[in-house]
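@channel anyone free to eyeball this complex?
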Amino acid sequence: MQLLNGKLFSEAEAQTLYDIMLNRRDVRGNRFLDQPIGEEALQQLLDAALHAPSVGFSQPWEFVLIREAAVKSKIKASYEEVNSKAAELFQDEKQERYKRLKLEGIAEAPLNIAVFYKPSAVPVLGQTEMTEMGLYSVVCAVQNMWLMARALNIGIGWVSILDPEQVKQILNAPPANQLVAYLCVGYTDGFYTSPELEMLQWEKRKAAEAAIFYDGYPGGSSIQ
Amino acid sequence: MQLLNGKLFSEAEAQTLYDIMLNRRDVRGNRFLDQPIGEEALQQLLDAALHAPSVGFSQPWEFVLIREAAVKSKIKASYEEVNSKAAELFQDEKQERYKRLKLEGIAEAPLNIAVFYKPSAVPVLGQTEMTEMGLYSVVCAVQNMWLMARALNIGIGWVSILDPEQVKQILNAPPANQLVAYLCVGYTDGFYTSPELEMLQWEKRKAAEAAIFYDGYPGGSSIQ
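replying in thread with the prediction:
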């Protein structure tokens, strides 16, 4: 309990983190280079993931690294099926625009990573009431990996237009495991300076004030 | 589409990010100082959160900043109730140890932040099949904020031993909103060099090899 001498960071170091966060992008197949991720960079990505916070220090994550073209092509086929149904949910002009978007880089990225949540067989401290905390820990691992990739100038795209059960079957995942993320990972020909869906005017950046409240939402009696 | 000149980072900058990740801790009430978070630091924390990735650039997050003692004390009372039930789920000696752990800093931290997911009224690109993606986007915002806090030498503790419905009621949250995280935020008297639950031998760090698989889980026919 006496080891309270964790490193203190400088303003310049905080600024570096801020720059990495603001430059992180979701990278799709039109940007990936056909250049493998070296062993050292891969270790750094995994190390970042493995040092994410986890509820009750449960570390409930598993990572399947996919490089085989045959496996990727099964995943890609599953994506195509799900995506054509997804497009139907958007109306008129938005549907036309949806169909023109490149939304994944499964085949183009040299590395894909399927990230799973593995439930614990025993109660986990902090997960007894909010049972979704295990899944959220895995998401923290994904975000750590994503930021680390950006700092190494490696792009990551998160593909969520997938049927998790089909992905589990393709990867022979244990029945209890839950697919949290499917990531396409690779070097790129550059990083956009703004989010792609913002540049393409698919969605606007929201005003910060609209998302921030003080001591409760307005109109309540509980905080008066 | 031509703005592909996003910043490239150096090895030293990647190392800084790695150091921040490895030094991030979950901070509880026995470590928080009674020292307010200044406006500039608060803006940096929120800015980090607002630049997290979000599915379809939906930015589905809302943040309630809590400083009023009366609000905190209602949340703390809710925690106490949930935590005494949670302790019962652990057996014998583990239950005794559980009861001695300090697991939150609601009253001690000068700032608490309740982080909510606000569902979209219209279909969101990338969330049509995996509907949990909106929640996961909010978790990415939490992790960005947590890392930014650590870089600013500010501690964050994530309290998940709470009844989300009680918290929503206390904060007068809209019925459709979902509580993702409740964070205790403040300066500290130091950061532990290892995770607290590891130091206290509550859980061990898992071997990396146990969590990493190649091209699928073993034993499957699908990858042969």
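from a first look: Chain B touches chain A through 119 residues (CB under 8 Å).
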